[in-house]
Amino acid sequence: MSDTAVRSRKPSVHKLPVTGVLRLNSPAEIWYKPALSVVVASAVPNLLLYSLGRLDLVMYTMAGSLCALYGHNLPYARRAHTVLRVILGMAAGLAAALVTASLTDSTAVLIAVGALLAAVQKTFCDATRIGPPGNVIFAFVTSAALFAPQELGQVPGHMALMLAAGAFSWLVTAGPALWRREGPERLATARALDAAAAYATAPDARSRHAAAAAVQGAWQSLLASGRPTPVRQELERLVVHAERALATPAADGHVPGTDPDELRRWAAKTRARGPVPSPPPAPGTLEQLFGIDAERAGQRMRRGRREARRRLLRALGPGSPVLPVAVRTLVGCALAGYVSSALGVGHPYWAIVTAASVYQPNLALSWSRGLQRTVGNLLGVLVFAAVIPLARTGPLALVLCVLFFSFAAEALITRNYWLGSVAVTPMALLILEFGGFQPAGRLITDRALDTLVGVAVGFLAAVAVTNRRASGRVERALAAAGDARDRAERAVADPAADPPALETARRRLTAALVELRDAGDVASGEWWQRALPEEELLAAEQAGHRTLAATAQRQGLITLPPANGAV
């Protein structure tokens, strides 16, 4: 078959979504954890500064307190390292901003440095897949610090405040491990069971991808969780049962050999605080699960860490799909800042932060985020106008208002980004009050103008700076999926293949199929690129899942019906 036969012809410019962009979703399962964490991490240093009469220093402690927003889906062993890296990254960006602010008061230079920092932060957050809230918090802190009055001799003291608050944030995020150390793994396993039940109930391409991603996430969580415990071993057994549903081919809209209600019951018990369910071993599994202990030990070895560094370098190297988005961020943030400054807005860094928040994996998602940001910020300034008289009744009232909006932002943002922005906007404006009262009308006008400028200029920069490497990521994902499928087929055909080899081949193929679908989804919303090989993508996914089923059958996890009615 020729290449032209398998490559669908799609226009290089796609329709941008309008309907549904502002629709509210169900709240995230653990929305309260980042919300409570940031409140606790902020309340202690803020109230301490209030007692000392130095609320003018809140901006520096907030830089460390906001680090408590990261890592809440990760196992505690991985979370401790991730939040530490977030704190160090925040410290590096803040130090660069403070030193720059102390050396120059040129608005043009400050905007250029702010755009450069935003691009670097976007690059590293995307390359490391750090997860929400991503680069926006970094950009918010460093951009605001650039335009704050600063003397070079003050920088060490302000950095010390940030690091102290960051250390407290680390304790807040890692502390729950003392009484529920397997909590994140239990949640990831429950999600895999629910996704598998959804696929078993209504099997289609979307539910199959969701189940594959959830199962892959559960395995990654268990592999990153540290040494095996009896609870984690039971969780591994539950994930194997979820994989059975994923690996079993659907027939006539039904997945045979699986009970969705039982999977959901296991998921509910896994989420609860009681004992983890103890299902019977999946057919053909060993008492010691296939190679997961050896794989976990390999991740702890030096070569595992070297491989992680190599992956990061590849993600940042030539040909990386991350780099065009970084260039978009640099160009868009710089232009937004300069346009805002030319319009006479007194806080051009808000335009920088707005543009930085717009950039998502593809142009369609960036458009949606721009609409959400615009609606949320404009409503947020109205909320600020309503609450500012209360906040100005005294310093304690101001501190409590900031804490309230910090909680509300994290509580609402998972419903839809625009709803969270309604709380983020007054919080950001109120933080300025710690440095001294400013005319409320001017603050509202500046924030509204910066929002419109940041969204408009940021999106135009995204249109102008193309990301044709999205197609290249699809091609690499197709090649990787084909290679993983070939290895799995060789393992299935090899009579001497042992259970660990089969399990490793199956898990690698699952990961490759998840990456393939993600790459296709990202590329499908990007402009100015080669037509996507949609038929080839579909064929690769179907072939990969057939091989998954064959691998699971060889392991004894499932029993496939005989072909062509043969007995």
Specify the oligomeric state: single chain
Order of helices and strands: HHHHHHHHHHHHHHHHHHHHHH
N- and C-termini, Cα separation: 35 Å
Largest sheet: none
pLDDT below 50 for ≥5 consecutive residues: which ranges?
1-11, 284-291, 297-304, 560-567
**SS field, number of helical segments:** 22
Structure summary, number of beta strands: 0
Share of helix among residues? over 70%
Give the percentage of residues in beta strands: under 5%
- Structural class by secondary-structure content: mainly alpha
- What would you report as the Rg, rounded to the nearest angstrom? 25 Å
Q: What integer is the average pLDDT?
A: 82
Structural shape: globular
Keywords: Cell membrane, Membrane, Transmembrane, Transmembrane helix
Domain Integral membrane bound transporter: 335-460
Main location: membrane
Organism: [Kitasatospora] papulosa
In short:
The chain is mainly alpha-helical and 567 residues long. The protein has 22 helices and no strands.
Question: Overview of this structure, please?
Answer:
It is a single chain. Helix 5 packs antiparallel against helix 14 and helix 21 packs antiparallel against helix 22 (534-555). It contains 22 helices and no strands. The longest helix has 29 residues, at 363-391. The chain starts with a helix and ends in a 12-residue tail after the last helix. It has helices at 3-6, 32-52, 58-65, 76-103, 107-128, 136-146, 155-174, 183-201, 205-223, 230-247, 260-271, 292-300, 302-316, 322-342, 349-358, 363-391, 395-412, 417-433, 440-464, 469-493, 499-524, 534-555. Pfam families: FUSC_2 (PF13515). This is FUSC family protein. It is a multi-pass membrane protein.
